[in-house]
Design a protein that fits this description.
mainly alpha, 6 helices
C-alpha cells in the first residue's frame, strides 16, 4: 500500500495504520530476538540486560521522533532518526551474531523486559496528528524512511530470529 493516497481516500487512518503496523512488526520482531550479549563500541562486555536496555532505548526513539512531526522540516528530522535507528539495529545485530544463543528462560525474561520497555511506542504512533500525517510531502518523507527501515529489518531478521524465543514462528 503506498503512503501517498488518492484524495478520495482517507490518508490519515491509512497512514497511521501502516506506521502502526511497521512499528508493531519491528517491536515484536525485536522483542523476540535481541536476547544475548557481546562487545559494545567501548570494548566493554555487554550483558543480557545492557543489550535489552540498548534495544529499548533504540526502538523508543522511533515513536518519539514520529510524535514530534509538525511540518516538513520536523518530518525530515524524524526520517533521519528512523534511518539512524536502522543503522544502530544493524550494529546491534552484528554484535549479536557473534554470541552464543542464551537459554529459553533467559530469552523469555529479556523478551518480557523489552516488550514492557517499548509498550508506550504503539500508543505514541497511534496518536499522530492526522492533519499533519495527511500532508503528501510528509507522507513521502516518512514513507521513504519507513521503507528503508523495513529493508534494514529484512536484512537483520535472520540474525535476530536465531536468538528469539519463537525462532520457528513466522513474523
Amino acid at each position: 500500500m503506498p503512503f501517498i493516497q488518492p484524495r478520495n481516500q482517507q490518508p490519515n487512518n491509512q497512514m497511521k495504520l501502516k506506521l502502526s503496523q511497521i512499528a508493531t512488526v519491528a517491536s515484536v520482531a525485536l522483542s523476540m530476538l535481541f536476547v544475548s550479549c557481546g562487545e559494545d563500541k567501548k570494548s566493554k562486555a555487554d550483558t543480557l540486560d545492557s543489550i535489552a536496555d540498548e534495544v529499548i532505548a533504540t526502538l523508543n526513539r522511533m515513536p518519539e521522533a514520529m510524535s514530534s512531526i509538525k511540518d516538513k522540516e520536523s518530518a525530515q528530522a524524524a526520517a533521519d532518526v528512523i534511518k539512524e535507528v536502522g543503522t544502530e539495529l544493524e550494529d546491534i545485530a552484528a554484535r549479536l551474531e557473534k554470541l552464543d544463543v542464551p537459554s529459553d528462560e533467559e530469552k523469555k525474561r529479556i523478551d518480557k523486559k523489552i516488550e514492557d520497555g517499548i509498550a508506550g511506542g504503539d500508543e505514541k504512533m497511534g496518536n499522530l496528528d492526522p492533519k499533519v500525517m495527511a500532508d503528501p510531502e510528509i507522507q513521502k518523507i516518512i514513507g521513504e524512511a519507513m521503507q528503508s527501515f523495513g529493508e534494514t529489518m529484512k536484512k537483520v531478521e535472520p540474525i535476530f530470529k536465531k536468538y528469539g524465543k519463537d525462532s520457528n514462528k513466522e513474523s
